[in-house]
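input
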Amino acid sequence: MYFLVALVAFILSMLATVIIRAIAVRFDITDKPLVERKIHKRPIPLWGGVAIYVGVWVSVILYILYAPLSWPQIIGTHVAGQDIILIAGAGMLLVIGGMLDDVFDLKPWQQIFFPMIAACVIVKGGIGIDQISIPFGGTFFLGAWSDLLTFAWLMVVMYTTKFLDGLDGLVSGMTIINAVIITLLSLFFFVNFPTALLAVIVAGAYAGFLVFNFHPASIFLGEGGSLLAGFFLGILAIVSGAKLATTMLILGIPILDAVWVIIRRMILERRSPFKADRKHIHFRLLDAGLSQRMAVLVLYAFASIFGISALFLQSTQKLIGFGILVLIMILLGWFALHRERQSV
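output
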């Protein structure tokens, strides 16, 4: 059943991508390589997030209408009917904001408005992180801190995928890997079928888009698509039972890269953390001599290895795994910088 659901999302996303790409070309809603950090050579259509959003939520609606289960059985206890509406509504805010940014090139303070509102919708709607596992045993109940942590978590993951969106297919592929791991966790380890359903739909929709987004890409995610990826992954981590550590392992290198970039821009360079440059780890891998495809596949490989390991690791072991990721991040940065200096 789950394969069929993923296949439907895959096909719907592909069809929506073809239509959205034609609309974007018709109205010249494209990413033009006018600045140095752009690595594509010709204008590429945007608004990919619209196609993915359509693929996800039309799939959900079709499942609700035609699945041989009643509504309460489908939505289960972890993803209630109200939660589905909240997630869809918050996601729509991100897509609308992304569409506006792709057309009008909004300023950073205007861009951040939409993800902040989307995160607030989720928090105020009652979806949140109520407790977290303590690495060395036990559980910590957040109480009044729940809303703040949920908001911060969603913002961190959304901006991680936003910053990561620099190479063809990178964010789409990382989203698929993460969603598949959450599906496996939900099906075989925690028996959370509604979360598995939502995760497999997200995986299928991004896979359908990846057909057109892998190098050489014929359409980009755009602002809405990259933020939507982080939003979905953040939500899936919450509704699957606060599996934040699993998502952090899979997205470990991009999260660490995003944290370092923000620190470097704000403290070392004394400028806005939202002003883009070519100093992200994926760009450094390109400058070190890797092709776009090879750089993307290297990051896919790390995400897959740590994602699969997360299926079997306990809380303490996941903490050790994240420490290993920090070391790998340092080594990758050293390798990229060393190769870059050799080529000068």
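quick obs: The CA atoms of residues 17 and 51 lie 5 Å apart.
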